[in-house]
Amino acid sequence: MPKGRQKVPHLDAPLGLPTCLWLELAGLFLLVPWVMGLAGTGGPDGQGTGGPSWAVHLESLEGDGEEETLEQQADALAQAAGLVNAGRIGE
């Protein structure tokens, strides 16, 4: 029986585990923003501006006549935040 350390082929990798993990995380941080940027341009409707988006759900318990007022409130809220109201959720 030989004495000393035995060489195991799969443990003699040139890169260590911390280096491999760092490279994988760096790749994720580079690829995810790129993929997310592409997702906004070619959506089902193709109407994405490519910038940040947001949604507000305004609900009224009164009649259907309040729908116009809710749209106006959504537009006013968007203008106050410096954004553009792109319409209803799911449109």
Automatic annotation (TrEMBL):
Residues that span the membrane, as ranges: 21-39
Keywords: Membrane, Transmembrane, Transmembrane helix
Superkingdom in the source lineage: Eukaryota
Protein name as it appears in the record: Proprotein convertase subtilisin/kexin type 7
Species of the source: Homo sapiens (Human)
Designated gene of the protein: PCSK7
